[in-house]
Amino acid sequence: MAISSNSCLAIICSLLCCWMRTASSLNLEDPNVCSHWESYSVTVQESYPHPFDQIYYTSCTDILNWFKCTRHRISYRTAYRHGEKTMYRRKSQCCPGFYESQDMCVPHCADKCVHGRCIAPNTCQCEPGWGGTNCSSACDGDHWGPHCSSRCQCKNRALCNPITGACHCTAGYRGWRCEDRCEQGTYGNDCHQRCQCQNGATCDHITGECRCSPGYTGAL
């Protein structure tokens, strides 16, 4: 049965509307995007054979009607009606634990990541120097780095940088872990000060105080 141009146009319009509704700005290749197929109904114009009583004439022996008799038969003509058509579309949305932001599905953390960022549902990645589930706790003196996961290697009461792990030596010590005393003849912070001791006296590597050799007295 032939389909009229009006019917074809109605179907094309329905398909176009379907495509426009299903077009999504989310990237289906994104692992954080979930999708499923759903059905829906659209109204379409469809053709069908409509019966009608067709009158025609045949030759017969009816003299009164000039040998012409009226006959009836059921014939069909193409008619149109509105109907419903089930169609399917792919619906995309962010997977559980994610929400849409600027056409992307980003993870959601119930607690704000104070000093960090949300990298997975309810999972924060902390900045160096911070730890805790929501990155709100500063590293203690023995730890450094993201999530305070690295242990400090500083010696002799040196201060550990919570971000880099670098050791800030106390007076009288040097080295990347502050494990060495100042060289003889130097003392103080970063061992930058020169000892003033005389006559073979030894210099305290922390304070610069002189310890006199036997037979000598005085500050230097």
TrEMBL record:
Residues 30-107 form the EMI domain. Keywords: Cell membrane, Disulfide bond, EGF-like domain, Glycoprotein, Membrane, Repeat, Signal, Transmembrane, Transmembrane helix. It is a single-pass membrane protein. GO terms for cellular component: plasma membrane. It is found in: Cell membrane. Residues 1-25 form the signal peptide. The keyword Repeat applies. This is Multiple epidermal growth factor-like domains protein 10. It comes from Microtus ochrogaster (Prairie vole).
